[in-house]
Amino acid sequence: GKAFATNGTSYDAAGNSYQNSIKLDPFMSAILVTDVPSTTTSTTAATCSATGTILREEWDNIGGTSISDIPLQKAPSSTSQLTSFEGPLNVADNYGSRIRGYICPPQTGSYTFWLATDDAGELWLSTDSTVANKVRIANVDGYTDYRQWDKFASQKSASITLQAGKKYYIEALQKEGGGGDNLSVQWQLPDASMETPIAGGHLSPYVDTTAKATIAGTGSITRDEWDNVGGTGISDIPLQNAPTSTTQVTSFEGPKDVADNYASRIRGYIYAPQTGSYTFWLATDDAGELWLSTDDQPVNKTRIANVDGWTNYREWGKYPSQKSISITLQAGKKYYVEALQKEGGGGDNLSVQWQLPDGTMETPIAGSHLAPYTATTADQTIAFAALASKTNGDAPFGLTATASSGLSVGFRVVSGPATISGSTLTLTGDGTVTVEASQTGNANFNAAKTVSQSFVVLPASTTCSATGTILREEWDNVPGNNISDFSFQAAPTSTNQLTSFEGPVNTHDNYASRIRGYICIPQTGNYTFWIAGDDAAELWLSTDDNPDNKVRIANLLSWTGYREWNKFDSQKSASITLQAGKKYYVEALQKQGGGGDNLSVQWQLPNGTVESPLPGKYLSPYFSQQLTTSSLNASIINTQSIATANPLAATVKQGLFVYPNPASQQTNVEFTLAEAGQTDIALYNTKGQLMGKLFSGTTEANIKTNFILSAGALQNGVYIIHLTSGKSNLTKKLIVVK
């Protein structure tokens, strides 16, 4: 009969109203609904319906105490339905559990959740009924007692606004090691009421509604291994070679800590079980790469993750590069996938995990989604551009061709004057050269159709001709070891012709020698010269065929052994550009004191060829005035055709002229000199032998001198008329044809 106060107008189940109080008979009770003004919290009934239970999954015999130890990618050992958000208490050790399903909020407003677990635990809530949108809202890193809600701050979620009648996916994870075990979830509703644990009236079990693949993997994937391979980089893997061994693995994970100095590749096909966004992770020791194709063709693969250093076994978060971006895959479609690993020393591992569109983590990817690699070969083509014509004597050059497969291209000379080493072609003569490019294929590609290119090798330009010898002069009984000890102005003790740019070796002591003449250049390009000698030596080269323009390009201040080219830096010239077909004056000086004696010159041509010593085929002798003469008739016709009081006022261009040329019986020889002095003119054959002196006497400056040379005693052939006067050295070629 006692009256109880109420807050405003209240209603019972029969619809009776009560104003501010209600009076009940003994042993009676009533449930009242209070009519209160509208606020931000609504008591609108939920439009979603709960079944009264939630799904619990358990994995037995699992070591560890961390959430990451739960093998969520594998089927659970057992499942059951719970009538509240709370698992069994103190039932076993070494297991993992997941309670998941849907929660239907009874009110619109702010909710707070608490989690208590032993050992570690996590609580996840989605923004809707989709698993992929779940976020972690609370966790336990250690353990709590049964329903101990306040041991860690992380056990309590932030305030979360939920909508009445809307279904939300919810999931709690628990990893039990040893000792006690529990898992409970409570919440506080917008009206501030606490529900411990959350009652089954708001819960429904998880139902997998994601589209599933109609194609499944075979349960394994191919693993190749190459043994005894040094290095720790992916580039060290000899993928072009056959592996040492090939096996099948039942998940996307290789063996752990098995050997050093090896490489491995796990490859095959992956079948996506759901359509949606996937994320992949790679862990390896040492370096690793993960590749995924857009289809089942390896050629379309792209790298999606990599490890540049090393990670521990299943250590997924050491480098950002271990994690792929989100990749959309289609359920039931087959994709080529490949993981590479290079092991140096120490520990070794290779593992790949993924996250499915529904948020499930699979560590490593299970064999049920995998199939071994099946070799298929694709066609490839070669791109080999046309080759431009070359000149005989050009430097070796590289060939370039590419295969559409990315594999390296090989070359061979089909025909013509050339040899090849790798991709470098060396010309050996004139004519047409045909080169073939080929690619033989591999396990992924068929052999490409060969491609040939032809080009012409033109003859080298040779406007100058060499006689095959060079002049050597020797002065005997000359003391001293230095070039400066002798002037080289006196008549030599002896002269002779050499068939290469090299003097005699170890003949006697106390002499000086000079080897001089002309060098005819076979190729245009950069040349390098070396000189070796005993004792001192110098090498001089002119910018043309005039000795007056010579410069020293190499020298020895002391002695070297025979053909010892590298004793002194000064023995080697700088790189000198010379023109093919042009004749250059060259001179080597040697001063021998006592002991051994030698003088040699070598060169390197623009094509890289080194000739040691420089051969006679490029050489001609200097036109010396000191050779023994033979009689030859010459008559002076006119020696003063031009004369003035002041010669500079009527300067005549200096020169030597011969006409007619070719000649049969006689020819005119005419010369004019810029300076007065002793003048000598002689005739030589192409071997450098003196045929006769044509003129010897004093001439004045700017005076044209003309005489007739009788050629009756000469044989058909080529001769050289050589004029010397002071610093002037003039030559003219005479051809005799009868």
From TrEMBL:
SMART domains: PA14. Pfam families: PA14, Por_Secre_tail. Residues 50-202, 216-369, 465-617 form the PA14 domain. InterPro entries: Fibrocystin (IPR052387), PA14/GLEYA (IPR037524), PA14_dom (IPR011658), Secre_tail (IPR026444). Keywords: Signal. The keyword Isomerase does not apply. SUPFAM superfamilies: Anthrax protective antigen. The keyword ATP-binding does not apply. It comes from the Bacteria. PANTHER family: FIBROCYSTIN-L ISOFORM 2 PRECURSOR-RELATED, POLYCYSTIC KIDNEY AND HEPATIC DISEASE 1 (AUTOSOMAL RECESSIVE)-LIKE 1. NCBIfam families: Por_Secre_tail. This is T9SS type A sorting domain-containing protein. It comes from Mucilaginibacter arboris.
